[in-house]
Amino acid sequence: MGKLPEFFVDQDLCTECGDCMKAVPQAFRKVEDEEVAEVYNWDLEESFMPRVQQIMTDCPGKAILWRKK
Fold it and tell me: From start to end of 1-69, where are the E strands?
């Protein structure tokens, strides 16, 4: 089984809602001493793709993006 492409949180767009951390806690966490999220683990199996894509769509700030190579 393959891995997901790398993704990240654009902290300038993050609205601090916490939805991503609730939806995929295996990948997202709160930045220490700040109110924004970050990706701490993008080494996820392909089975996480639907949840990651859904939170990308649902993110109010559209802050979760695929990293371009």
Answer: 7-9, 28-30, 37-39, 64-66
